[in-house]
Amino acid sequence: MQAAFFHGVRDIRVRDISDAEPKAGEVLVAVTAVGICGSDLHTYLLGNIGGVSSREPIVLGHEAGGVILALGPEAPPHLRVGQRVAIDPATPCLQCEFCQHGQHHLCLNLKFMGYFPQHGALQERMVHPARSVVPVPDSISDVGAAMLEPLGVALHAARLGAVQHGEDVIVIGCGTIGLLCVRLARLAGARRVFAVDRYAWRLDMAANFGADYCLNIEQVDPVEEVMRVTGKRGVDVAFEAAWVTDTANQCALAARNGGRVIIVGIPAEDEFTLKASVVRRKELTIIYSRRMNHTYEASIALAERGLIDLDALGKFQMPLARAAEAFEAAADYHQGVVRAMILPQWKG
Question: Which CATH superfamily groups domain 2-141+310-343?
Answer without folding.
Answer: Medium-chain alcohol dehydrogenases, catalytic domain (3.90.180.10)
